[in-house]
């Protein structure tokens, strides 16, 4: 083999097809590296350059990245689970049992989904504590803290709506109790509960509504807010690494 | 452009600016109206008009089936049928705290909620726990066929008994 793998890759990156997709092309200059980030729809949410010290473990404990990681695992495991799960009263519980005992790798996907969900709630809370105690929520990052609170709420709603889907006794009574908590909202409480459940009791309508919220509405909303959250990190001057402004 | 220059400006142009403002107002106004309409439509759509839920009125069979001094729980409908010294009465088994189904404990002679530990007497009066209200009594009556009917949607303010 005349060329090394790196050289072959460089040749590939200079082909017309590659250049039509990734315009920055090959090359190790700072401009090329900056362009590679700037011209990628996903990467451009982040900064082109960051301070080396803000990558140190002690700065973030990587809690935000880990939260994103669990979210991606939940999306990737959730979609295959949807293929075997029918959100209907006669089938939901049996489908959950089938996923555990009859579907190949079903138990792995279901448990990965479940444990990642637990981990995500834990990591999001830990992330917020870390941000709070380091003072990283202070101006100019105060709006990103608000976005973070929205993401915490979305995480909890995702967790809550997913809890009903196995349609077992635990799920049924947990959602009964939870939806009765909604009734405590002043004036509108019972009306909101009626809209959330699509009825007066936890029933077929409630199962379907929670399914749609869990699989479509809340993940899409979360993805949009995650994008804003990351973009704001760049716009607010990068990850807070403990610098203090001179007076 | 100074105020004076604007005054001297050509009248058609002045008219165009005020027309633009009128259209902006019209546009913003119609967007607001559309949003309000979408809000009402959204609410109406999300609130179901027809519910396929079980009827609130349940048939508990012949009153003779409930011997004196007995407390019978119907798991399916979530009611207690109690035959006390003054007659038969029906009581909701749904806890007034957060809606869990309570259970009759014959060995203790009380009603207990498994979720957060509320306890009630057989009259529905709270003994202990977080429940804010006693278990409500439900309207019960005997129909022409001699069956005991219970309306779970109608809470009694005054105690009423079905005499047998």
SSE blueprint and pairings:
The complex is a heterodimer of chains A (247) and B (164).
Chain A: H1 5-13, H2 16-21, H3 30-38, H4 57-60, H5 63-82, H6 92-101, H7 106-134, H8 142-164, H9 169-182, H10 189-197, H11 204-235
Helix pairs in contact in A: 5-7, 6-7, 7-8, 8-11
Chain B: H1 3-8, H2 11-46, E1 57-59, E2 71-74, E3 79-84, E4 87-92, E5 103-105, E6 110-112, E7 119-120, E8 126-128, E9 137-142, E10 148-155
Antiparallel strand pairs in B: 1-10, 2-3, 3-4, 4-9, 5-6, 6-7, 7-8, 9-10
Q: Report the uncertain regions of chain B.
A: none
- Through-space gap between termini of chain A: 61 Å
Q: Counting H and I runs of at least 4 residues, what is the number of helices of chain A?
A: 11
Number of strands of chain B: 10
Q: How are strands sequenced across the largest beta sheet of chain B?
A: 1-10-9-4-3-2
Strand residue percentage of chain A: under 5%
Oligomeric composition of the shown chains? heterodimer
Shape of chain B: elongated
Low-confidence stretches of chain A: none
- Biggest interface and residues each: A-B, 15 and 12 residues
Task: Give the ordered list of helices and strands of chain A.
Answer: HHHHHHHHHHH
How many strands of chain A?
0
Determine the strand fraction of chain B and express it as a percent band: 25-35%
Q: Give the biggest sheet of chain B.
A: 6 strands, antiparallel
Helix fraction bin of chain A = 55-70%
- Cα shape of chain A: globular
- The DSSP helix count of chain B reads 2
Encode the helix/strand succession of chain B as letters: HHEEEEEEEEEE
Secondary structure class of chain B reads alpha+beta
């Amino acid at each position: 083999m005349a060329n090394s793998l790196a050289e072959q890759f460089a040749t590939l990156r200079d082909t017309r097809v590659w250049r039509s997709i990734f315009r920055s092309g090959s090359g190790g200059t700072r401009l090329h590296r900056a362009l590679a980030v700037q011209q990628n729809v996903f990467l451009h949410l982040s900064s082109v350059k960051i301070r080396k010290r803000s990558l140190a473990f002690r700065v973030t404990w990587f809690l935000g990245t880990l939260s994103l990681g669990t979210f991606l695992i939940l999306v990737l495991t959730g979609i295959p689970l949807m293929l075997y799960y029918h959100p209907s009263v006669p089938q939901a519980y049996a489908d959950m049992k089938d996923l555990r005992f009859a579907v190949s790798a079903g138990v792995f996907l279901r448990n990965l989904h479940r444990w990642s969900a637990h981990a995500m709630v834990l990591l999001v809370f830990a992330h917020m504590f870390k941000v709070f105690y380091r003072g990283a929520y202070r101006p100019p990052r105060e709006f990103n803290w608000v976005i973070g609170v929205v993401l915490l709420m979305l995480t909890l709603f995702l967790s809550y709506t997913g809890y009903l889907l196995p349609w077992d006794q635990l799920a049924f009574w947990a959602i009964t109790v939870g939806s009765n908590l909604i009734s405590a909202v002043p004036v509108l409480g019972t009306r909101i509960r009626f809209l959330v459940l699509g009825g007066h009791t936890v029933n077929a309508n409630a199962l379907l509504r929670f399914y749609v919220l869990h699989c479509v509405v809340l993940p899409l909303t979360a993805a949009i807010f995650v994008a804003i959250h990351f973009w704001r990190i760049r716009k607010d001057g990068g990850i807070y690494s403990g610098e203090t402004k001179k007076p | 452009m100074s105020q004076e220059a604007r005054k001297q400006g050509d009248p058609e142009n002045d008219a165009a600016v005020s027309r633009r403002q009128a259209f902006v107002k019209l546009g913003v106004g119609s967007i607001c109206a559309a949003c309000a309409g979408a809000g009402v439509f959204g609410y109406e759509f999300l609130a179901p008009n027809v519910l396929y839920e079980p009827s609130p009125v349940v048939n508990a069979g012949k009153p003779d089936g409930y011997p004196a001094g007995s407390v019978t729980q119907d798991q399916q409908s979530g009611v207690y049928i109690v035959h006390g010294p003054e007659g038969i009465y029906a009581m909701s088994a749904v806890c007034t705290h957060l809606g869990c189904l309570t259970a009759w404990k014959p060995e203790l002679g009380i009603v207990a909620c498994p979720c957060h530990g509320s306890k009630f007497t057989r009259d529905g009066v709270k003994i202990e726990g977080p429940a804010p209200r006693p278990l409500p009594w439900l309207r019960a009556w005997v129909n022409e066929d001699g069956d005991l009917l219970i309306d779970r949607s109608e809470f009694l303010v005054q105690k009423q008994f079905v005499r047998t």
